[in-house]
Design a protein that fits this description.
heterodimer; A: alpha/beta; Rossmann fold; six-stranded mixed β-sheet; 7 helices; B: mainly beta; six-stranded parallel β-barrel; 3 helices; 11% helix
Chain lengths: 220, 183
Amino acid sequence: MLKDRLRSEPPPHSLHSPPKKSGSGQPFNRASNGLDQFFASLADQESLSILDFSGATQANISFITSMGHRIYSNDALRTMEEAFGSGGDFISNQSDPERAAMFLRENLEFQERTFDGALVWDTLQFLAPPLLQDTVDRLYRILRPQSSLLAFFHADEKAQTAPLYSYRIVESKIMSMTPRNQVRPVQYFNNRSLEKLFQKFSSVKFFLTRDHLREVIVRR
Amino acid sequence: MWNKRKEEEYPPKSPATPAAPASQIKENAPMSTNPASSHVTESRGPAIIGKSVMIKGQIFSREDLTIDGEIDGSVELHEHRLTVGPNGKLQAGVKAREVVVLGTIHGNVEASDKIDIRKDAKLVGDIKTARIVIEDGAYFKGSIDIVRPETARTPAQPKSQPAAAPTSNAATPATAIAGGDSR
């Protein structure tokens, strides 16, 4: 069924722009209301568990642990590439049950562990349904009630590709973004589709920015 | 599966290569692939487990240790520094004062002082430490729990099992004690 849907999409080779190996650009700082809100939700608390999908970076580890919290690091984009490849079949591979199971297992299988917050950055926009919904459902299960999740979605409907970034926390409201590549998002998310995606959660809050990045704070 | 790979990569080229009985390893400890330094304990650097050495079992050390081989079991150097060299592959729980990783660790790591994960290193497991340094290019998956030095100095409760228990079809599990008098 997903394959049928994918057939109506552009040819697989156009799903990703040509890889820009040298495209890793210079990092730049950017203010983020979503990040600020996320950390505000952790204020006055210690020993919380925070899930970070950006991969282990000194900046994020130092920032979060300096607040007295525990961080769980995982590079979700790397796992995504390992599970689905990085070529033209990136999206069609997501409908392979074994590959999808591997992605979920590597990223979101924590046995009894739960979290008080999740920084998933922009990873969700590269997942196709039904894996996207499975991923969000897993996030719902591993997050404790009242916890927050921060996610980014590119908001330029006409853009053929979206930049893929590494995110590092500079301050509670400033992050450093390093361009990694240009990738075609699987789908365009507007506020309505995001509300539907996170319908199990208690609230969804949007911050639309000038640079076409929709920041979303989801409350469990 | 893991053991098969080990057997392929580590044909028994020398008596030291396969997992040796505890007594044999104690006799030769500290282990090194450099014969010239193997009998000198005071003037040389840390004990070294060379890249052609594979050990299944528990390692306790009372001096700094560098592992460039493969370990399946557990490694404990409570007051000392463990360095996992670029060729080092540990499927093991690790406890040390300081841990420097240039190779690969699959297992939980407790470092009472500091853990340093260098570029191209890979660590999959949970970390408990007072300080952590992670270089760009390193791969880490797991949780990081920063413990205050006061807490870290208190002796940890011994766990019932290492994070990655030795597999069953190995040779007799070895217990290697490097440095100081044997326990």
